[in-house]
Write a structure and sequence with these properties.
Layout (H helix, E strand, L loop, with lengths): L1 H27 L12 H7 L3 H4 L2 E3 L3 H10 L5 H10 L6 E2 L11 H13 L10 H6 L17 E10 L4 H17 L4 E3 L6 E17 L5 E14 L2
Parallel strand pairs: 1-5
Antiparallel strand pairs: 2-3, 3-6, 4-5, 5-6
Helix pairs in contact: 2-8, 4-6
């Protein structure tokens, strides 16, 4: 009887160890949750647009825009960051495109924007208000039907903000600045003199990066690039 009891206890112990091991394996097999889910900055901006704006565009990350921003960031020198940080950058997003923006005198940031526009083959000017920039995509802003109304066109914008501001807040501010202009985008154009209507689709891409000056009290600047492309629909 004692031998039987001992065997029973031994079997129970083995089963307990097996159950603990199985539980341990189950925990280890759980996938690690990413600390920064890769939803993309384009998605973050799109989620903060109004329903009317969302209906006009498709949000899509762009490798070309990522590479263009990386190239443009080479122009954002340390002195440029320090100057913008000290005098202009607060928690409100600043658009480098605006001719009347407080940072418009920063030639290095303007050079970065010019490089971004060139890399993306965008058709807007370096310095112009946002409504004028979006006019590039508006087929009704040109008087001649032959003025490339049936061509794909795109514009590029650049924003800067204090690097300490969280990316969620940054993308909300980007959406706020773009929303009205996106809502006003024309999705079709009736060609004069003929019964032809051109349909347009729009794709908005967003990329961002932050530069930190470790040698200057860790001042940092986040640069956001936005590309809005108009494509002729089928």
């Amino acid at each position: 009887m004692k031998l039987k009891n001992f065997a029973s206890l031994l079997l129970a112990g083995v089963m307990s160890v097996s159950m603990l091991t199985a539980c341990g394996n189950a925990v280890n097999e759980q996938p690690e949750q990413p600390t920064n889910p890769a939803t993309g900055y384009s998605t973050m901006v799109g989620n903060n647009l109004s329903a009317a704006a969302k209906s006009k565009v498709t949000m899509s990350d762009s490798n070309d825009l990522d590479k263009a921003l990386e190239s443009a960031m080479d122009y954002v020198a340390g002195s440029s960051i320090a100057s913008a940080y000290n005098f202009n950058l607060i928690s409100t997003l600043k658009c480098v495109n605006y001719s009347n923006a407080p940072i418009s005198n920063d030639t290095m940031l303007e050079a970065a924007l010019a490089d971004l526009i060139d890399s993306m083959k965008a058709e807007n000017a370096v310095s112009a208000p946002i409504n004028t920039t979006f006019d590039v995509l508006d087929p009704y802003q040109t008087n001649d039907d032959s003025e490339r109304k049936d061509d794909d066109r795109n514009i590029a914008l650049m924003y800067v903000i204090d690097g300490a501001v969280g990316y969620d807040s940054v993308m909300k501010q980007v959406a706020s600045q773009l929303e009205h202009e996106i809502e006003a985008l024309k999705t079709d154009y009736r060609v004069q003199g003929v019964n032809t209507v051109l349909d347009y689709n729009y794709v908005v891409s967003v990329s961002a990066d932050t530069i930190t000056l470790t040698g200057d009290h860790d001042k940092s600047v986040t640069v956001v690039a936005v590309n809005v492309a108009r494509n002729l629909g089928e």
